[in-house]
C-alpha cells in the first residue's frame, strides 16, 4: 500500500509515538499527583478489575510486555496492597490475580481522574467525529498487529 500525503507513513509514525508519549506522561503526572500511582499501574489494575482471575501471562499479552516485566509489575501492586495472587487450581505453575478491596477502590477513583484527563487532553482538541475516526483507525491497526503477533516480546 502506498501513501501519497506529504510525509507519509514516517510522519504518521512520528506523530503517533509523540502523541502517545505526551498523553502517557500527562496521565502519569495527574495520576501520581492525585493517587500516588502511574499510568502503567492504573492500566494493570483496570485490566485486573475487568478480567477477574487473569494470570501474569494474560497481563503480558495484553500489554505486549515480557512475562518477567509483567510479574515485576504484579509484585509492585502486591507490595502496595492493591492486588493478590491466588493458586491456580487448574495449573500449579501459575497464579490467578485479583484486586484487593484497596485496589478496587483505587481503580475507581483513579479511573475518574484518568477519564477527566483524557477528556481534557483529547476531547479538548478533537471533536467527537475526529476522535471516533482516530479510535477506529487505531483499533483496526491494533487488531492487525495482534492478529499477526507483531511486536510481541519473547519471554
Characterise the protein shown here.
The chain is mostly helical. It has a single domain, classed as Orthogonal Bundle (Arc Repressor Mutant, subunit A). The chain is 67% helix and 6% strand. It contains six helices and two strands; from the N terminus they run ααααββαα. It has helices at 8-35, 39-50, 56-63, 67-79, 101-123, 128-147, and strands at residues 83-87, 95-99. The chain has a two-stranded antiparallel ribbon. A hairpin with a 7-residue loop joins β1 and β2 (95-99). The chain is globular and about 55 Å long. The relative contact order is 0.12. InterPro entries: HTH_MarR-typ, MarR/SlyA-like, WH-like_DNA-bd_sf, WH_DNA-bd_sf. It holds the Pfam family MarR_2. This is MarR family transcriptional regulator. One of its GO terms (molecular function) is DNA-binding transcription factor activity. Residues 9-150 form the HTH marR-type domain.
Brief descriptors of the model:
mainly alpha; two-stranded antiparallel ribbon; 2 strands
Order of helices and strands: HHHHEEHH
Strands side by side in the biggest sheet: 1-2
What is the number of independent domains? 1
Portion in strands: 5-15%
Query: Architecture, according to CATH?
Result: Orthogonal Bundle
Q: Structural class, please?
A: mainly alpha
Helical fraction equals 55-70%
- State the separation between the terminal residues, measured CA to CA: 32 Å
CATH superfamily: Winged helix-like DNA-binding domain superfamily/Winged helix DNA-binding domain
GO molecular function: DNA-binding transcription factor activity
InterPro entries: HTH_MarR-typ, MarR/SlyA-like, WH-like_DNA-bd_sf, WH_DNA-bd_sf
Pfam families: MarR_2 (PF12802)
Domain HTH marR-type: 9-150
Amino acid at each position: 500500500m502506498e501513501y501519497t500525503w506529504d510525509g507519509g507513513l514516517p510522519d504518521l509514525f512520528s506523530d503517533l509515538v509523540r502523541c502517545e508519549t505526551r498523553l502517557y506522561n500527562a496521565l502519569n503526572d495527574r495520576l501520581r499527583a492525585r493517587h500516588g500511582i502511574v499510568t502503567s499501574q492504573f492500566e494493570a489494575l483496570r485490566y485486573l478489575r475487568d478480567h477477574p482471575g487473569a494470570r501474569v501471562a494474560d497481563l503480558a499479552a495484553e500489554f505486549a510486555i515480557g512475562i518477567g516485566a509483567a510479574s515485576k509489575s504484579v509484585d509492585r501492586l502486591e507490595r502496595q496492597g492493591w492486588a493478590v495472587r491466588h493458586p491456580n487450581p487448574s495449573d500449579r505453575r501459575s497464579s490467578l490475580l485479583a484486586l484487593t478491596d484497596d485496589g478496587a477502590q483505587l481503580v475507581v477513583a483513579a479511573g475518574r481522574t484518568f477519564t477527566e484527563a483524557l477528556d481534557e487532553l483529547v476531547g479538548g482538541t478533537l471533536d467527537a467525529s475526529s476522535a471516533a475516526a482516530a479510535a477506529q483507525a487505531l483499533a483496526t491497526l491494533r487488531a492487525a498487529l495482534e492478529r499477526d503477533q507483531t511486536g510481541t516480546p519473547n519471554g
